Amino acid sequence: MTTTKNGKPAFRALANITMVAALSVAAAAGVNAQDKAQDGVSKTAITLGQSLAMTGAGTTLATPFGQGARLYFDRVNAGGGINGRKVELVTLDDAGNPETTAANTKKLIEQKVFALFGYYGSPQVTAINPLLKDTDILLFAPMAGADELRGSLYPNVYSVRPGYSEEAAVITRHAETLGMRKLAILHGKDLESLAALDSAERTMGGLGANLVAKSALSGGSIATSVDQILTKKPESVLVISDASGAAGAIRDLRAKGFRGPIYGFSNTGESLLAEQLGAAGAGVVVVRVTPKSDNAKSILVRELQADAAAAKLKSNVYMLEGYIAAWTFTEALRKAGKDPTRAKLRKALDTMQDLNLGGFRVHFDGERVGSKLVELSLIDATGRVRE
User: Fold this and answer.
1) 48 φ/ψ angles, rounded to the nearest 5 degrees
2) String of b and e for 214-248 (b: at least 16 CB within 10 Å)?
3) What is this structure's pTM?
4) Domain boundary residue among 237, 255, 288?
């Protein structure tokens, strides 16, 4: 038996050394476990980051989109959250400025959010892509239609809505069935409208439409822009703008005798445009990438309307898009399991097949676009939206 210098047995000293070593190993394991804990996930919450135009350009679209997302997350949290964790959405205002969006995103990443969610604007997503593409941080469901965002240069961006090229293709085919190949475009000068314009020109020309004129809308120049395109005698007109700008252009087109088809992209907002135009909107055709926002037969729409009414909000198509985005993300989190990580979230999305959200279906399954739905709504003579 080994003894110490004073002749006493050494087993007590050895036991103490063993205990210290064991505690050191346990402490190291605890540190390692803490180091491996996923950013943005605590015992009680999953924290998401969002940069949105709460003021300034784009707020008429971005604000209801953000409200719709919060309505659904509030519903989830009221039911106990996801595996006991509530969803916390940290939203920063970028006023529609891509540079501010990038600065906000840096802050959110530094705050160690789990994922980025529900940004507004194609140029805004372009601005933050360098911050994401070499990381494991996902941006889920931006309200942005630029086609490039769905390509290989944006590997961490997962979209629910299809791109503007799909919208342009549906409009072109509809006009062709009416024999209307000569097209003019009136467009806003905001960055999102310019992104939509780029897709429209490339897609419609490729499908055989004859683009005879295009003109920008801004402030008091609407009448001048309308005059410019009418001199080219178009058979149909596409208006790319928010509801307010589009309504002004459409009224002027009709007042000056244009009776051909008038189309609007999804960023025009069918329900908001119908409200602004009333009877003057008769015959205007607007793209939507969600179910019709007042379709009482839709479980999805009814649930949104109930949640919006409880919050004293009026639902619209943009709020519905935000609601869909949050519902889809929630289901991906559930699929990611009890202890979600960014890798598990990506896998959950990549393997998501035919998810039914109250009648609206989302299907990623290896792609980064969850829905191909592009439908046309018609505003009638009473100012209501019809299928």
Assistant:
1) -110, 155
2) bbbbeeeebeebbebbbeeebbbbbbbbbbebbbb
3) 0.88
4) 288
Mean pLDDT of the chain: 90
- Look at the alpha carbons of 121, 123, 126, 131 in this order and tell me if their dihedral is positive or negative: negative
pLDDT, tens digit, for every residue of 207-265? 989 999 999 997 667 899 999 999 999 999 999 998 889 999 999 999 999 999 999 99
CATH number for the domain spanning 235: value is 3.40.50.2300
How many residues are recorded in the chain? 387
157 with 169, same domain: the answer is no
pLDDT digits (tens, 9 = 90+) for 26-74: 444 443 433 457 999 999 999 999 999 999 878 989 999 999 999 999 9
pLDDT at residue 190, rounded to an integer: 86
User: Are both 234 and 336 inside the same structural domain?
Assistant: no
Instruction: Tell me, yes or no, whether 208 and 282 share the same domain.
Output: yes
Give the pLDDT confidence of 253-310 residue by residue, as tens digits: 999 999 999 999 998 888 889 999 999 999 999 999 999 888 889 999 999 999 999 9
Number of domains in the chain: 2
Does 175 share its domain with 284?
Answer: yes
Segments forming the whole domain that contains residue 120: 45-161+296-362
Q: What are phi and psi of 131, to 5 degrees?
A: -80, -15
CA–CA gap between residue 361 and residue 370 (Å, rounded): 8
Query: For residue 384, is it within any domain?
Result: no
**What is the C-alpha separation between 324 and 320, in angstroms, rounded?**
6
d(CA 243, CA 248): 9
Among the candidates 288, 310, 333, a domain finishes at 288
Q: 320 exposed, middle or buried (CB, 10 Å; 0-12, 13-18, 19+)?
A: buried
